[in-house]
Amino acid sequence: MSVTQEYLAQALNQPAWYQRLGAYDWLFGLFVLIGVGYAYSDFRHLMDAYEVGILFASGAGLIAFGWFWKPMRGLTIAVALLSLAAIGLYGDELARGEQNFFLKFLISSQSAIMWMSALYVLATLTYWFALAIRSDFAGRTATAMTWCATTMGWVGLMVRWRESYLISHDVGHIPVSNLYEVFILFALITAMLYLHYERRYANRNLGAFVLTVVSAAVAFLLWYTFDRGAHEIQPLVPALQSYWMKIHVPANFVGYGAFALAAMIGVAYLLVERRPEGFLGRAMPTLTQMDDLMYKSIALGFAFFTIATVLGAMWAAEAWGGYWSWDPKETWALIVWLNYAAWLHLRLTKGWRGKPLAWWAIVGLFVTLFAFVGVNMFLSGLHSYGTL
Amino acid sequence: MSTEIRPTPRPRRLGDILLEFLGSMNLAISLLVVIGIASAIGTVLKQNEPYNNYKIKFGDFWFEVFRSLDLYDIYGSNWFLLLLGFLLLSTSVCVARNAPRMLHEMRTFRFNVQEKSLRAFHHHDEWHSHAPHAELVEAATALMGHAGYRVKGDRDGAVTTLAGLRGMAGRIGYILSHTAIVVICLGGLLDGNIPLKLAEFSGELKPELRDMPANEVPAISTLGTDNHSFRGSVSIPEGARANFVFLQLRDGYLKQELPFTVALQDFRIEHYSTGMPKSFESDLIIYDDQNPDAEPLHQTIRVNHPLIYNGYAIYQSSFSDGGSKLKLAAWSFDAPEAEPFIIDSAVNRSVDLETPRGDRRLELTEFKAFNIFPLPEGDPSGKKHRNYGPSITFKVRRPNGTAFEYQNYMLPIEQDGARYYLTGMRATPSDQFGFLHLPLDRKGSLERFMHFLARVHDRERLNAAIANETSSAVGDERAEQVNGAIAHLAELFLDQGIDALIAEMEEKVEPEQRQAALDAYIKVIQGVFGTLYLEVLEEEGIDLSQDVTAADTRFFDDSMTALSTLAPYGSPFYLELKSFEQVEASGLQITKSPGKDIVYLGSALLIAGIFFMFYLHPRKLWLRIVPDGDGSRLLLAGNSVRNHADFDAEFDKLRAQLRRASGAGDLGATADERGTAV
Questions:
Q1: Closest-CA residue in chain A for B308?
Q2: How many domains does chain B have?
Q3: What percent of chain A has pLDDT over 70?
Q4: What separation in angstroms does the CA of A217 have from each of A75, A181, A362, B99?
Q5: Is B28 in contact with A345 (Cβ distance < 8 A)?
Q6: B195 falls within a domain
């Protein structure tokens, strides 16, 4: 056998993707399957066919996601165990949220969300600190805090889901039904997208920028809670009582989260671009990397935003009698879509790179923000359940 | 996007120039931005409001300017359609121009690439190997194949060229997503209002502007059942039926006939304990008008659960009062001794009344079977919400056209043991209701208040009470002057309310004495009215030798409060709701949209296309193996349409593998070690 053939035999003898999965992967898969099986056997009578479909699809999706992005396994298991603990402690009585020590101070939905808020803000400060003093330890601490905040946020949402059923059976619903709940979702998804790229690019310094926008969302959330009492669980208006909500809203927020991520990378890009060898420039990923990341983020956001808009149109056809009504929210979704479509054409077809697109991504965030919050604040229409 | 070499220029004709313009990226991006801005304008300016609202908002001049620009119905305007048309055209031209080339490129392995071109690629590498030619070809084919490339080889004399293609389905992504836009636009066009616009333009159709019963709408404003696409709405009261819907068109409407009749049996609203609506449901019966013998279809629809009937979709979209029957008693404030006047009417009707203050038109606008409001935290009942019972809303219109709006509750409210009728009044719809509490006597009736009102309006009795209060002898000139002043104040109080009294005080009395004077006047008026009140009690047969009970005293205080605000209340009567029979109406939206499935197909294509486009990157590889001395010279080059960073890593890995397989040894650094993406 020649050198060539010997090498070839070794190079080509790579295990297939399923052979590369370890014991942890399979255990994780089993864990999710048990969860899905339990949910199906116990709550089947509460779900319609579509919801059963969504349950199984999200189970499969979660397993695939955990295999593709390994940290997702630990996150899923931690969130599941903490949420189950809270559910167990609650039993059938909502009032235990005030009596039980662990619920009151740790894992009732309100407490968990407060922990999430505090940890995200701390993580932001730590990321900036780590960037300022170039401390790897501080950077790792910030990452750990972001992971903890994300865990607590998901626990908050899961437990809130349960709490809504404890208030009254007919009040119960998935917590993606109003501006308060989706702001939590926005913070979580933005943070997770960032954590994914942090690991992939092995650079923590973008965290200072991205977590800043997450902290801004947290600030809004806190104002919304303490000034407006938005954290109260409200029953669903008839138009929202549909399985579509379970897929339309999360898809939308993957989009919004990715656009927010792109905008913050845009900010970092512009700062570094002014002095690439400056204090900041030396710490950040290269301009090419950031430019590439911005594109990837917007591409991902655009894909999910398209899905969300299409799902929204299908839901609208079922609830309002037409797949497109030029309702302000629909129209602004279209504007956001057109905006990023223009961005992508400029990059992919006209070959634009760098500075102008970074500016455009930042402007894009404001357009997105208006579609997301501004429409509810300033314009009236069919999406009026998210008013401030 | 093109990586191709530009064709040599040839003489350009007008058609080419036009095609070039329509297919240009600049036009496409400009269109995306302009459509975005136009759409945004339509969200800032509320669309399809009644034209009067715009007139009030902008004034006559700007109203006309905006109207001529179609700003009140942007999304249905010609210029907006034209923009969409351009987008459709531009996208079509792009697809038509690029798709054949891309499809060709996907399938074509190009072997006749010059070495100079290959070396010009950003990704290229060249090295020497001693391995046999055939072995090199075999190894390279296997490795490139393993990396996910489709590989083909071409032998030209001693030189072998391997060409590899990967992710070429990304090109399909471009074709799918752009075709999808065309498909969606066409589907939308099918459901759009172009046929209506044409019919209107040719004079066959004219929107009706007047309010009239459906059966009087003229033929020129009526669309037959052959109209293939529409979206209209109709409100059907319980027990009634309809075989038409109305389509709103700018400031008018069209009547759309249906090939079936919808009858509403029952409409139900369920509520959460907070009073928030939980579900809206309509029990419908559908009669097929073309087939009268067919069994009618019974179906319940609710929000999110429409009925699809022969291609028509029937949605639960709103609800309103369908003309609830109301029995009302009007208690006149001007003739309080008279029996209340009984009115039998219904919501959405009006009643003309003659009152001592002139003609009034009573317009009954709304009936609510219950009103649930949150209770303050820690209410003794332990509940969070309370039902205040049925209410009616109505307007009392004066002959000059102005009107106040009122809201009256059917059931008395109880406060600390005393009972009141609650009636709200507001002068404009933007105000909050201000509430008047009318005290009720022991029987739960307005009678005692009305008797008292009659008495204070009786001039003789009032004067007698004043004389009694000031204990002046008749004929005493000075006393009569005083009495006259008191009578004047009492009248002022009754006719214009307590504020008028204060205003008069401020005009006549020095500031430092005002408070004292006001207190004195109120005391006198209280005394005078108190005397009259005692007479009322006496007439009721209450023994006044005993002390007046706390309840009766309180009744007097409440009556005085009510009297002081009766003047600004404005209505000549209090309307008491005696009984009702609720009739609800369900607002149905009925649509026919043949373009829907086309739009969905387009949407599916769009999503598939976008994922293909973003996650499959067309990549090309070339490897030339040229005999060179005792071995071979290998020239590797690669090209990726996008995602250069990822391709960097992929290319580095592959060339390291190829180098090792050809026995040329490792590279100094691979992409992994440089810390770039894997």
A1: A318
A2: 5
A3: 97
A4: 21, 12, 16, 43
A5: yes
A6: no
pLDDT in tens, B134-171: 888 888 999 999 888 999 998 888 889 999 999 888 88
Give the residue carrying structure tokens 């589907």: B187
- B217 and B129 in a common domain: no
ipTM value:
0.92
**Residue B184 phi, psi dihedral angles, 5° rounding:** -65, -45
Interface test with chain B among A173, A242, A245, A292, by most B beta carbons within 10 Å: A292
Do A241 and B305 touch, CB atoms closer than 8 A? no
Are residues B227 and B181 part of one domain?
no
- The residue written with tokens 């294509």 in the block is B605
> A319, B302: Cβ pair inside 8 Å?
no
CA distances from residue A60 to A34, A77, A86, A172, A301 in whole angstroms, order as listed: 12, 15, 25, 25, 22
Minimum CA–CA partner of B43 in chain A: A328
Using an 8 Å CB-CB cutoff, list chain A residues near B102: none
Q: At what angle do helices A287-319 and A355-369 cross, to 10 degrees?
A: 30
CB contact under 8 A, B35 and A338: yes
**What DSSP element (H or E) covers B219?**
none
Among B405, B434, B463, give the residue marking a domain's end: B434
CB pairs below 8 Å between A and B: how many? 158
Alpha-carbon gap: B676 to the closest alpha carbon of chain A (Å): 7
Q: Which two tokens stand for residue B119?
A: 């070396």
How far is C-alpha B299 from the chain's CA centre? 27
The residues, ordered by sequence, that sit 6+ positions from B343 with a Cβ below 8 Å of its Cβ are B326, B327, B328, B329, B330, B351, B362, B575
Q: What is the token pair recorded at A201? A: 């690019």
- Do B77 and B131 share a structural domain? no
d(CA B145, CA B165): 10
Q: Out of A307, A331, A348, whose CB is closest to B39?
A: A331
What are the φ and ψ backbone dihedral angles of B465, each rounded to 5 degrees?
A: -65, -35
Say if CB B137 and CB B163 are below 8 A apart.
Answer: no
Name the least confident of B59-68, B130-139, B512-521. Answer: B512-521
B336 inside domain: no
Asked if A302 and B614 come within 8 Å (Cβ–Cβ), the reply is yes
> For the segment B462-518, what is each residue's pLDDT rounded down to a tens digit?
888 888 777 755 556 777 777 888 888 888 888 877 778 788 778 877 888 888 877
B264 and B403 co-located in one domain: no
Asked if A350 lies within 8 A of B29 by C-beta distance, the reply is: yes
Angle, alpha carbons B658-B663-B665 (nearest 5°): 80
The answer to whether the CB atoms of B44 and A379 lie below 8 A apart is yes
| Residues B366-383, mean pLDDT to the nearest whole number | 81
Q: What is the CATH number of the domain that holds B151?
A: 3.30.160.110
Whether residue B545 is found in the same domain as residue B521: yes
Q: Could you tell me if residue B598 is inside a domain? A: no
- Residue A19 to residues A22, A25, A33, B118, B678, Cα–Cα distance (Å): 8, 11, 20, 37, 20
Q: Model confidence over A64-80: pLDDT tens digits?
A: 999 999 999 999 999 99
Report the C-alpha gap between B40 and B38 in whole angstroms: 5
**Tokens describing residue A123:** 């993580």
Give a yes or no: residue B405 inside a domain.
yes
DSSP annotation of A116: H
Given an 8 Å threshold on Cβ–Cβ distance, is B596 in contact with A323? yes
Contacts of A165 in chain B (CB under 8 A): none
What per-residue string of b and e applies to B330-349 under the rule 16 or more CB within 10 Å gives b? bbbbebbeeebeebebbbbe
- Our CA-based measurement puts residue A139 at a distance from the nearest CA of chain B, in whole angstroms, of 18
Bridging pattern class, strands B277-288 and B297-302: antiparallel
Mark which of B190, B225, B259 sits at the end of a domain.
B190
The boundaries of the domain holding residue B563 are: 451-575
